[in-house]
Amino acid sequence: MLNRFRLEFPSRPDNVGLARVTVAAFAAQIDPTLEELDDIKGAVSEAVANAIVHGYDNSPDGVVTVEGVLYGDAIEVFVEDSGKGMEDVGQAMEPEFSTDPERLGLGFSFMQTFMDSVSVDSVPGRGTRVVMRKQFARRH
Asked: Terminal CA-to-CA distance of the chain, rounded, Å?
């Protein structure tokens, strides 16, 4: 059975927590372990923070969209912005690469560690869409 949600909010740092708990509450429907929930929350936090910091340069005037879809024992989470986008997604996904010298550049590395798959589509001047998927361990 398929279930989904969609959430839109201003690109304000205090909304990272909103995205985290929304996705965690949604994922809880399929009874993940606490570790699986923590992984999802960590990945969502990184993706939303990237949209705010890099997509919108910390401007609160953008909109971040988070969508979640449950497929049996798996979840897919989409985080999308209409910000400045990226010229080179491959380079952006390299560990320790960042356009902001104040940041560590580990966001995508963390997402890839927490989730089973991460893909990124980005168009300069039009925004970025991150798709993350996690398969939950079967406990039945």
From this structure: 17
Question: What is the CATH classification number for the domain harbouring 11?
Answer: 3.30.565.10
Give tens-digit pLDDT for 31-50.
999 999 999 999 999 999 99
Q: Is 15 a catalytic residue?
A: no
Q: What's the order of all strands across the beta sheet hosting 63-71?
A: 2-10, 63-71, 74-81, 127-135, 117-123
Q: Is 103 a catalytic residue?
A: yes
* pLDDT greater than 60 at residue 98: no
Tell whether the model's pLDDT for residue 15 goes beyond 80.
Answer: yes
Out of 15, 20, 36, 46, which one is annotated catalytic? Answer: 46
Is 36 a known active-site residue?
no
In a domain, 140, yes or no: no
